[in-house]
Amino acid sequence: MRKAEVKKKTKETDIYVELNIDGKGNYDIATGIGFFDHMLSLFAKHGLFDLKVVAKGDLEVDTHHTVEDVGIVLGNAFLKAAGDKKSIKRFSTFYVPMDEALVRVSVDISGRPFLYCDLPLKAERVGNFETENVEEFLRAFAYNFGITLHVELLHGSNSHHIIEATFKALGRALDEALRIDERVEGIPSTKGIL
């Protein structure tokens, strides 16, 4: 089982993440940000990751520090749990529709952190969640996991639908990219490392 437990405490946040990549989609999420909790729950459920996230942050300021630091710690947890990455499929692209919205997420478990994000969101907030923090989360996650991540809105207008499709697609794409393929011998790279 590929599992990890990661903690990070600063003057702004106190984050704890427990992850099982080879889980069943069970989740226990408490960040103090309702909409973000919902998105992380969808991510875990559709990625079939067992995930626990407990975050305490300076929400009296805004949600930025908490969302970004959860991305950092979650990325670290995936990096730790993925281990040597032997025999993984490595690449995946997943499309998820949510009513009028359609989002495409492409992942390369490459060891080369990069984010391309094209998610134009009309609403500034969904609940108490600032929508500009979607990209901050994705960047923190991708850079701390060490993956190449492309996220694109193909069409759609409702910010809730777009963000929800994004988190579902991210979960599904990571599930596929991290799957063990018995045909893959060793590291799936001509360089010999990821």
Q: Mind telling me the CATH superfamily name? A: Imidazole glycerol phosphate dehydratase, domain 1
- Our measurement of the CA-to-CA distance between the termini, rounded to an integer number of angstroms, reads 20 Å
Number of β-strand runs = 10
* Shape, principal axes of CA atoms: globular
CA-based gyration radius: 16 Å
Residues in β-strands, percent: 25-35%
The CATH topology, please? Answer: Ribosomal Protein S5, domain 2
Treating each run of at least 4 consecutive H or I residues as one helix, how many helices? Answer: 4
* Portion of residues within helices: 25-40%
In CATH terms, what is the architecture? 2-Layer Sandwich
How can the largest sheet be summarized? 4 strands, mixed
Order of helices and strands: EEEHEHEEEEEHEH
Mean pLDDT, as a whole number? 96
Organism: Thermoanaerobacter thermohydrosulfuricus
Family: Belongs to the imidazoleglycerol-phosphate dehydratase family.
Subcellular location: Cytoplasm
Protein name: Imidazoleglycerol-phosphate dehydratase
Could you walk me through the main structural features you see in this protein, from its secondary elements to its overall organization?
- The chain has 4 helices and 10 strands, in the order βββαβαβββββαβα.
- By secondary structure, it is of the alpha+beta class.
- It has one domain (3-178): Ribosomal Protein S5, domain 2.
- β5 and β6 (101-108) form a beta hairpin.
- α2 packs parallel to α3 (133-145).
- The mean pLDDT is 96.
- Keywords: Amino-acid biosynthesis, Cytoplasm, Histidine biosynthesis, Lyase.
- It is an enzyme of class 4 (lyase).
- InterPro entries: IGPD_sf (IPR038494), ImidazoleglycerolP_deHydtase (IPR000807), ImidazoleglycerP_deHydtase_CS (IPR020565), Ribosomal_Su5_D2-typ_SF (IPR020568).
